[in-house]
Amino acid sequence: MSSLPLADQVAVVTGGARGIGAAIAARLRADGATVVVFDRAPDEGRPAVDVTDEHAVQAAVAEVVARHGRIDVLVNNAGVYPHVPFEAMTLDTWRAVMGLNLDGVFVCSRAVFPVMREQGYGRIVNIVSSTFFIGQRCLTAYVASKGGVIGFTRALATEAGPLGITVNAVAPGLIDTRGAAAADPLFDEVVGAQAIGRAGAPNDVAEAVAYVVTPAAGFITGQTINVDGGHRYH
Ligand SMILES: NC(=O)c1ccc[n+]([C@@H]2O[C@H](COP(=O)([O-])OP(=O)(O)OC[C@H]3O[C@@H](n4cnc5c(N)ncnc54)[C@H](O)[C@@H]3O)[C@@H](O)[C@H]2O)c1
After folding, report:
1. Which ligand 1 atom is at minimum distance from the Cα of 78?
2. 3-class DSSP string for 156-204
3. What's the 177 CA to ligand 1 centre distance in angstroms?
4. Tens digit of each residue's pLDDT (9 = 90 or more) over 153-176
């Protein structure tokens, strides 16, 4: 019998084709889980799944259950962070950010929740952002969307707890990914306000997620865990 913490478990990671999501997927695999990635970018042997498309997500979840029998872990990681000064922000851009970062979390959680309820076990982790605590400029839609997910996390945790399901958020600080490279001008500023003077790596986030999805973390729920090098918030 394997002693890996996620042996015989099945995990779904959204946005797992690259960046933080890819690191989380690799980390959960190393802990013994069968990991299925839902990403809009298709890959060999993996069809594209747009997490804002409710029917596509429901079909993908049904496919995972048909093939693997269960879903123990859901990591809602897919997200976008366009830097737009407030007066350049359009309602279309605002809605696109909310549609993925907030609605996408709802759509995936809603689709997986009945599977976890039936099992009497589940771990949902939402990847949010330390910018929620900073209020970083040019990110109004993004910060609002992540604040929404932090609220969603707390609220869903209260309904999920009696069913054996925990719901937590992990809030990365600045993490060195291809997506974040677009935010280059903020690198020095953000890193300068941290206790640990470097940008985070995707693996720094994956380590926190890997702990909170273990069966051993069953008394931790409704929380937002910051993985931000000790950023000093104002
Ligand atoms: N990189 C950072 O500095 C940082 C900091 C804090 C929080 N985060 C959060 O971490 C998460 C991942 O960030 P990242 O930097 O790895 O991003 P990234 O842009 O490198 O990767 C995002 C992934 O999500 C996928 N994706 C985008 N839209 C999708 C959709 N509609 N359906 C399915 N998949 C979709 C993309 O194809 C890509 O594989 C995001 O939620 C982001 O807000 C990132």
Report:
1. 24
2. HHHHHHHHCEEEEEEEECCECCHHHHCCHHHHHHHHHCECCCCCECHHH
3. 9
4. 999 999 999 999 999 999 999 998
